[in-house]
């Protein structure tokens, strides 16, 4: 199965986004992402070359081996030990959010970790951009997928960021929620891209949420107020970035 590429293991905290927002959890943040979203809030997991740094709006090149948030090659048991040092996930199970980066590029390596966490009674929530379909052995360990398909505002080309077959495979697990990030161009994004993906991939509107982009609390609230009515008329939910409202852009919360 091999080692895992990890950026952070942290908590306890709360899930900040989507249908599980507010729930107690711990995070396993993986390193590496094949996408290059210009507004990504975890660029330290992928913007480690000049070309990738240039794709992000901050333009900052992160050090791959930076000890705090850079790449750490860990065995599954090492990740478990780290989680246990933070919270007794064996005897007091909780939600474990596996994020990134893009964790689903490491599906085979993640299986032993996720299998043990699930056996101990934890809920395993996987955050993904929805560009890869789940492997059966991986899927068997996952309680919930938090799928965030990327829109044009991410800066990624369409063929790279939009994979209908992968979205449909995640939909068909019956355990996926879909969350779309909206920017100041929310009207065009909602009426064009979001509605189009929901229609073309036959997503259940009751499992669709929209969320404001940004790492500043007041801006999040201001933007969400603009699109909330339009979203709810469609049957979509609205998610804030709860951790941003509470702690700002703290990487460890």
From TrEMBL:
PROSITE patterns with a match to the protein in the record: RADICAL_SAM
Tree of life domain: Bacteria
One of the Pfam families matching this protein, by short name: Fer4_12
Lineage of the species this protein comes from: Bacteria, Bacillati, Actinomycetota, Actinomycetes, Kitasatosporales
Entry binding sites for [4Fe-4S] cluster: 33, 37, 40
Co-factor requirement: Mg(2+); [4Fe-4S] cluster; S-adenosyl-L-methionine
This protein's name: 7-carboxy-7-deazaguanine synthase
InterPro entries, per database record: 7-CO-7-deazaguanine_synth-like, Aldolase_TIM, rSAM, rSAM_sf
EC number of the protein: 4.3.99.3
Radical SAM core domain segment(s): 20-249
Chain's gene name: queE
């Amino acid at each position: 199965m091999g080692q895992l590429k990890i950026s952070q293991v942290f908590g306890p905290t709360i899930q900040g986004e989507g249908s599980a927002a507010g729930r107690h959890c711990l995070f396993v943040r993986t390193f590496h992402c094949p996408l290059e979203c210009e507004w990504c809030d975890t660029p330290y997991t992928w913007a480690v070359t000049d070309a990738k740094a240039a794709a992000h709006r901050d333009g900052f090149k992160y050090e791959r081996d930076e000890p705090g948030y850079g790449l750490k090659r860990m065995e599954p048991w090492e990740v478990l030990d780290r989680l246990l040092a933070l919270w007794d996930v064996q005897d007091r199970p909780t939600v474990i959010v596996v994020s990134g980066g893009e964790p689903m590029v490491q599906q085979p390596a993640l299986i032993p970790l996720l299998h043990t966490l699930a056996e101990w009674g934890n809920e395993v929530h996987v955050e993904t951009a929805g560009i890869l379909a789940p492997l059966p052995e991986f899927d068997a360990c996952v309680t919930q997928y938090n799928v965030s398909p990327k829109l044009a505002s991410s800066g990624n080309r369409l063929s790279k960021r939009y994979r209908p077959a992968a979205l449909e495979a995640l939909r068909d697990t019956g355990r996926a929620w879909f969350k779309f990030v909206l920017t100041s161009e929310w009207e065009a994004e909602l009426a064009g891209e979001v509605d189009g993906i929901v229609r073309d991939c036959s997503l259940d509107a009751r499992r669709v949420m929209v969320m404001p982009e940004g790492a500043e609390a007041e801006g999040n609230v201001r933007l969400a107020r603009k699109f909330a009515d339009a979203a709810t008329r469609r049957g979509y939910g609205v998610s804030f970035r709860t951790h941003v409202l509470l702690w700002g852009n703290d990487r460890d919360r």
